[in-house]
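Hey, resending since the last one bounced:
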Amino acid sequence: MAREDAPRDSYHLVGISFFILGLGTLLPWNFFITAIPYFQARLAGASNSTTRILSTNHTGPEDAFNFNNWVTLLSQLPLLLFTLLNSFLYQCVPETVRILGSLLAMLLLFALTAALVKVDMSPGPFFSITMASVCFINSFSAVLQGSLFGQLGTMPSTYSTLFLSGQGLAGIFAALAMLLSMASGVDAQTSALGYFITPCVGILMSIMCYLSLPHLKFARYYLANKPSQAQAQELETKAELLQSDENGIPNSPQKVALTLDLDLEKEPESEPDEPQKPGKPSVFVVFQKIWLTALCLVLVFTVTLSVFPAITAMVTSSTSPGRWSQFFNPICCFLLFNIMDWLGRSLTSYFLWPDEDSRLLPLLVCLRFLFVPLFMLCHVPQRSRLPTLFPQDAYFITFMLLFAISNGYLVSLTMCLAPRQVLPHEREVAGALMTFFLALGLSCGASLSFLFKALL
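The structure tokens again:
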């Protein structure tokens, strides 16, 4: 909540800045996975000048490097690593260095990716350079998100909402950039170059927004009144659960912002006479209370990352070659997923069902495993083992609608229920545990994608 003596956010400049910063944190992952056709074309040895880089689906033998799988895995492993290194890194490296350093490194690496569009290179070295870029970019992105959430912990919850809204729209922004590149009518190389320059512009805007914060009275007021290091660490850890993400998976802003402020706003009311919290809670005791919710979170992300984008990006339209077949995957896979996932996460702002005591939640989570065979039996042209049982486009679109909205809703639901299952002084430990299990689910899903693709 805003303090009574706080200055006004003139023209909402601070809010706009954090919205753009949120957008910038998840642009890397989304722009890499949305451009899968471009990378597969390059790895197939196609010439830059002759390949319709951003408009053709490349599947089967042309994906000999398993690019879909590797880009997913190497994007999620940094999240798991920096979750484990969280405390050490944030205590040893100044906040400004972490934020500006991460933004500049992401900018340089994306500039390298854009420059490689103009460079003829054999598939092997191109794959190695691209995978190294993916790994480093997502590492810096993980550090950036945790650091920015630390700053947001000092500000009203509205600004966490705006930041997470920006993250939630990053996937939609990347999908729209892909569609505009395809529809531009320019040659393939220029189209790909323009596509990869777009996130560079986004990161530049993020740098400008961050540098402007010290010059805004509203931002100076809150950032100069930071909570203790322990409290900031707690806020960073809890908020980090909702990246997408990370992950190219848009985040629900509303309920998460409420969760982030829960400790700051509720604990003084519930324990007004106690000068400090009880002793440090036991990790084992907290785990016993939230283990089922944490397991549900792991399973949700395991299912999602096991087929998206590794399998879903391989599905093509069953119609004859034409304009729709070119736009089918960008629209029906990436754009549709991001919109429906964001909508699903937003639903928890209005209701939470089932509640934390219900056994229906694990059932709903387990039912999502049905999406794995459903997507694998869709129209993937190059397959050697499984038949195609759902060739029509309508099947894939229906599966994607249910897949995306259930992912968004169940992820947001588990994140909202976990703090309600523990005592107020145990929420910090619960947040740290949920962070670990979120990263574990993402990594498990990325690893399983190799198996599912091999079964095709």
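Confidence is low (pLDDT under 50) at residues 47-53, 55-61, 227-248, 250-275.

Sorry for the duplicate.
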